[in-house]
Specification:
The chain is mainly alpha-helical and 140 residues long. Helices cover 66% and strands 0% of the residues. The protein is built from nine helices and no strands. The chain has helices at residues 2-10, 18-30, 32-38, 40-49, 56-64, 71-80, 87-94, 105-121, 131-139.
Length: 140
């Protein structure tokens, strides 16, 4: 259920234990989606102990059912890099969005990609000031 998905991720902590990271290495190597189906309780315990940053995107995609071959994922990747009428304004606003939190280039680029993809996907709405803060909160 979507409620259990949300709670599963909201309780995750940052992983620093090398043994935990090794367990995630092994699980990701075996396939996250397959592992979730085969060992749901173990997966839940591991998520609660924390998902290493380097695996969060893979785990999130598996949890919501997005495959690497999914046309939606390919479309998102296309939209991220497609300049549109809002791109310049998005670039200006990204650096102003929670500068104390989104100070690294990587986090600013993530914010830029999501905003740009949405503006390209829905040109009728495009981008308006304020969207950057909503998306930033979702990326945290």
């Amino acid at each position: 259920s979507s409620g259990s998905r949300a709670s599963l991720f909201s309780q995750a902590a940052e992983v620093t234990n090398p043994k935990e990271v090794w367990k995630w290495d092994e699980m990701v190597g075996a396939g996250v989606a397959e592992y979730m189906r085969a060992y749901p309780k173990r997966m839940q315990r591991r998520v609660r102990r924390g998902i290493p940053q380097c695996y969060r995107w893979q785990v999130w995609k598996a949890r919501v059912g997005v495959l690497d071959s999914d046309p939606l994922l390919r479309r998102y990747e296309q939209l991220c890099g497609s300049p549109n009428a809002s791109t310049k304004q998005i670039e200006v606003d990204v650096s102003r969005t929670f500068p104390e939190i989104f100070s690294s280039l990587g986090s600013q680029q993530a914010l830029l990609r999501v905003l740009n993809a949405y503006a390209a996907h829905n040109p009728e709405v495009g981008y308006c000031q304020g969207m950057n803060f909503v998306v930033a909160l979702l990326l945290l």
